Amino acid sequence: MAKKRERLEVIHDILKSVQDSGNNILPTRLLYASNLSPQMFKEYTEELLSKKLMSEVISNRKKYYSLTDKGFEFLEKYKLIVDFIDNFGL
Amino acid sequence: METLTVIVLLLHALIVILSCAYVYFKTWKIYQLTGHKGLLAFRNAFMFWGIGFFLQFVINFVSYSILWVSLHFIFYYFITAAPLLLVYSLVWKELEGKKQLFLHLISLIVSALALYFGEWILFACVIAVLLYGANISYYNYQKAKKGFSQLYFIALVLGLIGYAANYVADNYLSALPNIFFYLLALDCAVFLTFAYGVYITLKWPRKEKG
Q1: Alpha-carbon distance A26 to A32, whole Å?
Q2: Given a cut of 70, is residue B169 above it in pLDDT?
Q3: 3-class SS at A67?
Q4: What is the mean predicted confidence (pLDDT) over B46-75?
Q5: Is the confidence at residue B160, as pLDDT, over 60?
Q6: Model confidence at B26, in pLDDT bands (50, 70, 90)?
Q7: Domain map (residue ranges) of chain B
Q8: Does domain B3-201 have CATH number 1.20.1070.10?
Q9: Which residues of B70-92 are buried (b: 16+ CB within 10 A; e: fewer)?
Q10: Exposed e or buried b per residue across A15-30, where buried means at least 16 C-beta atoms within 10 angstroms of its C-beta
Q11: Residues contacting residue B104 through CB under 8 Å, at least 6 positions apart
């Protein structure tokens, strides 16, 4: 049985999927890539948008998600963040 | 108050406050990126300790009055809430749904009781919480066996010893020469250890120039 992902790990996976798609991904494609239920996906994307890790882009009347500078920074520093959380038992 | 005592108190306050400030501000970036609840509690713990030790320093120069009583109550609140928040940062996932507010309510109640019945209530509460925290920290160290986790456990135990030693020294050993300086040194050691842990764990990769 697959181990339940921690919140930070889910955020990392979502942002990585956006990055890997050329920083422009349709919401439905991101939903499949994130491996989350629609309800959880909605909660996470709303959080990521409100925290400005991701942004919405409208192009050809379609909505896409892309990473902000803060989102890129999260991915860049993810390992350091996880190490800190582990070291301090947070 | 003797000049040497004032200098030692000032030095102690500066070391502890600056260590706490270092932990709080150095962890700001990763909190901003993650919004991690455990990290929020961890940062708040050190903010509260910094404020608490500042108040402790100020109280030394205030004579008995309404102001002295008020400052003591506020000091007790911060110095109780800080270890509660630190231990909360270790167990927040198990307490999911319970907000930090209940910790502040407990701290206010303990502070009021300490003001009325004596400091032993505050020390008993904090020592019990830190004992529990040390147990959790030891478990985390056994699980991780790496990085700062061992030093974290040691710092937590030193903090626990510090609180216990302060109570014993205040009530039973105040006549012993230099006990006061050893306790201040222990305080400094604890907070410098945490500051060191944050420093070595959060060495951001330097950006290449040019």
Answers
A1: 10
A2: yes
A3: strand
A4: 93
A5: yes
A6: very high
A7: 3-201
A8: yes
A9: ebbeebbbbbbbbbbbbbbbbeb
A10: bbbbeebebebeeeeb
A11: B81
Alpha-carbon span B133 to B124, nearest angstrom: 14
Would an 8 Å CB–CB cutoff place A81 in contact with chain B? yes
Residue whose token pair is 């030095």: B11
Among A77, A84, A86, the residue with its CB nearest the CB of B144 is A86
- Terminal CA-to-CA distance of chain B, rounded, Å? 56
Closest residue by Cα to residue B148 from B47, B42, B36: B42
How many Å apart are CA A33 and CA A53, to the nearest integer?
A: 17
Neighbours of B182 (CB within 10 A): 12
CB contact under 8 A, B33 and A81: yes
ipTM of this complex: 0.84
Minimal C-alpha gap between A16 and chain B (Å): 15
The pTM of this model reads: 0.88
- Residue B44 token pair: 């708040």
Q: What letter represents residue A47's amino acid? A: E
